[in-house]
User: Which sequence fits this backbone?
């Protein structure tokens, strides 16, 4: 059931965010190229798109693992990329990240207790018995046992490791969590468990999520709204239901047409949109609309001028010259 977020304020406002990587010889890789969006308190915004479109870079720039090349990230009234050292420590408590690979994101030489307790120690939240009690509480919150505290990451399955990653993110009581493809490295049978856990935690703790993924069916399940990225640019943003019922951007339509439908009759008769050609290089993106070389509806204006992301219907934003 969709949450009513109409009376909630924006917790995060992203304005014209850019993240370029210097490739030498005067060329830049434009991983994130002038994107804008908002996330309300208590909301889950899904961020989808093909591999290499800039989703993870966006998430990492929001929590300042990467410094922005341009634009602003406003979190609860603070300009994230202009914070001093003291303010940055406060922001690090408010915004956390769950990483994609539960095998690579946990230090193999640290016990689970030390992994979860690291943030608690850095921010001086609990000491002694209270610290240990907090770690046990967190383990139980994510569906693990307190006996797991003294074990090492290699002793756990992928799903259990991702639960440890969730507990680590929750340890310092953040408001906002970037979930960077938290289920893509997991077995399908485990994916739903982790997504259900994230939903339960959101309801219980009032968390706000940016949920990055390329599996659109799972994103529909967890997200209130969905943003679609292509080659570092934002193509479409709307509510989860509207995106699936009425996708307006040709790229979104193509992504959705690739999702298998369980009904064999519908699946057999429906028309698929096959994307021709390859994704251009983010070092040398095409002029005009970034999707122009793969779009079957491309017109001259699409090759000449980049479309603005505009609100074509209430709560439905699209970057396409051909959508009225």
Assistant:
């Amino acid at each position: 059931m969709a949450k009513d977020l109409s009376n909630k304020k924006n917790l995060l406002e992203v304005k014209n965010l850019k993240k370029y990587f210097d490739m030498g010889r005067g060329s830049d890789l434009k991983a994130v190229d002038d994107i804008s969006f908002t996330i309300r308190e208590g909301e889950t915004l899904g961020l989808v798109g093909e591999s290499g479109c800039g989703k993870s870079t966006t998430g990492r720039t929001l929590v300042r693992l990467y410094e922005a090349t341009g634009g602003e990230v406003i979190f609860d009234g603070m300009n994230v990329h202009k914070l001093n050292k003291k303010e940055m420590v406060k922001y690090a408590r408010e915004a956390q990240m769950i990483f994609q690979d539960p095998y690579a994101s946990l230090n193999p030489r640290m016990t689970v207790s030390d992994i979860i307790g690291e943030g608690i120690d850095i921010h001086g939240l609990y000491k002694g018995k209270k610290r240990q009690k907090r770690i046990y509480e967190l383990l139980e919150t994510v569906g693990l046992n307190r006996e797991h505290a003294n074990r090492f990451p290699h002793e756990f399955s992928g799903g259990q490791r991702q639960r440890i990653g969730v507990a680590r993110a929750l340890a310092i009581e953040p408001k906002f969590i970037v979930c960077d493809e938290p289920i893509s490295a997991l077995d399908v049978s485990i994916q739903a468990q982790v997504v259900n856990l994230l939903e339960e935690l959101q309801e219980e703790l009032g968390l706000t999520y940016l949920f990055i993924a390329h599996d659109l069916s799972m994103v529909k399940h967890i997200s209130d709204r969905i943003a679609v990225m292509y080659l570092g640019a934002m193509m479409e943003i709307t509510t989860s239901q509207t995106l699936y019922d009425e996708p307006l951007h040709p790229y979104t339509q193509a992504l959705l047409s690739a999702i298998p439908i369980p009904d064999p009759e519908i699946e057999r008769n429906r028309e698929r949109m096959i994307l021709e050609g390859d994704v251009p290089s983010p070092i040398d993106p095409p002029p005009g609309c970034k999707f122009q070389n793969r779009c079957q509806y491309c017109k001259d204006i699409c090759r000449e001028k980049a479309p603005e992301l505009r609100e074509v219907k209430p709560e439905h934003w699209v970057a396409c010259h051909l959508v009225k």
